[in-house]
Amino acid sequence: MTALIVLHGLWRTDRQLALWAEDGSPFGCDAPTLRALLGSVGPGLEWLAERAAAGHASLLLPTVDGVRIPSPELALPDPPPFPPAPPEAERAATARTGGGRRAGAAALAPWRLPALIFAPAEAAQLLGELYDPHRSVLQPERPGVGQIEAPYGASLRWLAEVHDLAWRLAGRGRVLPALAFESGAACARWRPAPTPPPGASRPRWPPTARRSAGRRPTPRAAPSAPAPSSWSRTY
């Protein structure tokens, strides 16, 4: 039987990448499982996994009555019931809705799940290794485990596509110098200067890629998040 693990990514406010995963268990994949999965793909991912730190991803995930909703990529015939969210999650959901949320309605609730944390340089290499324009899945085989099917969730697909776009823009010189202000100080930065063909569109920013339960920066023009009625709409 093929084991199914869904990979997700979150670019954190500390400019590090959190790689987390679902495997049908209540609390997702732990760090050793993620390291072993990446290491079974090839030496490049194995080297990157060894350099990543074990940590956690603080996320806002679709939750119904304290139960976390699996992602659509986790196509289990009968998903096991996930444990209820911690009390603070229910209090947060009640505070957001003013206590008026009806039973059975989905809402975003904070969850803290195991993850591998990659520094910016390693994160860029990881996304480059994972990107494939024709397929978004890892299919390694581990001794004693067998075949593993590890599709990318919407957030990881988006992050890999954005990295590829940035890599191609920089490689073609499609950047311009710009001045930015960070913490009250002026900083030199490169600004993308793409020349897309008519009708071309940028990769869509999925809500799961910006669902951090911690303090989030306010983008200059952040897309609005859809109503969290299900994974298919929120993730």
Report on the architecture of this protein.
By secondary structure, this protein is α+β, with helices and mostly antiparallel strands. The chain has one domain. The chain is about 25% helix and about 30% strand. The chain has 6 helices and 11 strands. The strands form 3 sheets. It has a 5-stranded antiparallel sheet with strand order 2-3-6-4-5. Strands 1, 7, 8 and 9 form a 4-stranded mixed sheet that branches. Strands 10-11 form a two-stranded antiparallel ribbon. Helix 1 (about 30-40) runs antiparallel to helix 2 and helix 4 (about 120-130) crosses helix 5. The longest helix is centred in the C-terminal third of the chain and has 18 residues, at about 155-170. Residues about 75-80, about 90-95, about 95-100 and about 215-235 have low confidence and may be disordered.
How does the SSE layout of this entry go?
Layout: E1 3-4, E2 6-11, E3 17-22, H1 31-39, H2 43-51, E4 53-64, E5 67-68, H3 87-97, E6 106-118, H4 120-130, E7 137-138, E8 141-142, E9 146-151, H5 154-171, E10 175-182, E11 185-192, H6 231-234
Parallel strand pairs: 1-9
Antiparallel strand pairs: 2-3, 3-6, 4-5, 4-6, 7-9, 8-9, 10-11
Helix pairs in contact: 1-2, 2-4, 4-5
Number of discrete helical segments: 6
The SSE order reads EEEHHEEHEHEEEHEEH
Q: Tell me the distance between the termini.
A: 27 Å
Number of domains: 1
What share of the residues lie within helices? 25-40%
Which stretches of 5+ consecutive residues score pLDDT under 50?
77-82, 89-93, 95-100, 217-235
Strand order of the largest sheet: 2-3-6-4-5
What's the overall geometry? globular
Main sheet properties? 5 strands, antiparallel
Compute the number of strand runs: 11
Structural class: alpha+beta
Strand content: 25-35%
What is the residue-averaged pLDDT? 79
